[in-house]
Amino acid sequence: MFADRAKIYIRSGKGGDGHCSFRRELYVPNGGPDGGDGGRGGDLIFEVDEGLNTLSDYRHRRKYAAGDGEPGGKRRCHGKDGKDLVLYVPEGTVIKEAASGKVIADMSGENRRQVVLKGGKGGLGNQHFATATMQVPKYAQPGQPARELEVNLELKVIADVGLIGFPNVGKSTLLSRVTNAEPKIANYHFTTLSPNLGVVDLDGAKGFVMADIPGLIEGASEGVGLGHEFLRHIERTKLMIHVVDAAGTEGRDPIDDIYKINAELEAYNPDIAKRPQVIAANKTDLIYEPDEDPVERLKQEFEPKGIRVFPISGATGKGVSELLYYVSAQLDTMDRTPVVFEQEYFPEDELIYEELPYTVEVEDGMYVVEGPKIEKMLGYTNLDSEKGFAFFQKFLKETGILDELEAKGIQEGDTVRMYGLQFDYYK
């Protein structure tokens, strides 16, 4: 089974906590603080592996976490950094934030390696908090928390040309004739259930990569017949060869087929529907003295619209060469740089405590102060100690929280709540 999608949980490493300790040595009565810093948490990294072509590695294991940083130690010992975790994916994998569907990274083109979640910074040991007025700091800073995300991995094949059309019109036969690809070929619908890639080599002209997109049917843009899974693989193509059964061996009208497929492309993504198309009128070897030449009907309908029609036979090879050289010439006029999806979601914007604001609200006569920065500070401050409480008061003043409380009309004796901490306000 071709695995081109996966949903996984990823987490970077937590920063190690800073250490609180004091130098204790013979003949050194006032050694001072010597708590070391915590180690950095490991990064969560995605990297392209040229040897992979599916996402099957992520179908059974769903949770991935980088290593946590180790806490600091006494004698200013720095905690060991957490180990980075590298997840390998095939080229063309798009990483999306699961809840919003926004693109985090597109692992194609020049983007071969990307840090998606940075590890948390290690906390500072108490050696950093000594000042002239606070020479015995009894607190250290905790490490920054890990960052976590649930992401969707979507593999979108990278090809210059996509073969599109209804099931059983001969797309796989055409691909196998012009490339070394070996797609499954049989006389029934949906023989091809996954995209097949092949390289077209031409004498005297530039070759290109061609993808056989599994058969589309009416309603594909709404998910009918695995439509979304198939349509996703067209998104990077520069040009589409619309393969139709010119002989009408299954009783369908090729002109009607083209309009139906184009309607599905328009409904799925209007930008895709605007890309250049070429019509390959296939199975001409099965046309027997028709009352009306179906190839001429196709030409009369589409060539005035700028869409060339080539009569071919994937089975015998007749007309295929002319089609391929025309496609190569068209690609020469285009930018062949692979389509790369722009980043829309930035994980580094999340959980940046230093840049997040706090809020001061009045609830039932109580002043409630909240914000990640507040929560973080309370985590590493020992309010039971005189020095820790002095640090807390300084924090309230320097961050502007005291000014904000007074602006809200706080009076002496009023109660302030900060998460699990509750106290009465006095100047």
TrEMBL record:
Segments crossing the lipid bilayer: none
BP GO annotations: ribosome biogenesis
Pfam family, one: DUF1967
Cofactor: Mg(2+)
UniProtKB keywords: Cytoplasm, GTP-binding, Hydrolase, Magnesium, Metal-binding, Nucleotide-binding
GO cellular component, one term: cytoplasm
Residues in Obg domain copies: 1-158
InterPro entries xrefs: G_OBG, GTP-bd, GTP-bd_Obg/CgtA, GTP-bd_prot_GTP1/OBG_C_sf, GTP1-OBG_CS, GTP1_OBG_dom, GTP1_OBG_dom_sf, OBG_GTPase
Residues the entry annotates as binding Mg(2+): 172, 192
Compartment(s) of residence: Cytoplasm
Binding site for GTP: 165-172, 190-194, 212-215, 282-285, 313-315
Chief place of localization: cytoplasm
Domain annotation OCT: ranges: 345-427
Secretion signal span: none
Domain OBG-type G: 159-332
UniProt GO molecular function: GTP binding; GTPase activity; magnesium ion binding
CDD domains attached to this UniProt entry: Obg
HAMAP family in alphabetical order: GTPase_Obg
Family annotation (NCBIfam families): Obg_CgtA, Obg_CgtA_exten, PRK12296.1, PRK12297.1, PRK12299.1, small_GTP
Similarity comment: family membership: Belongs to the TRAFAC class OBG-HflX-like GTPase superfamily. OBG GTPase family.
Free-text function comment from the UniProt entry: An essential GTPase which binds GTP, GDP and possibly (p)ppGpp with moderate affinity, with high nucleotide exchange rates and a fairly low GTP hydrolysis rate. Plays a role in control of the cell cycle, stress response, ribosome biogenesis and in those bacteria that undergo differentiation, in morphogenesis control.
Protein name: GTPase Obg
Organism: Candidatus Mediterraneibacter faecavium
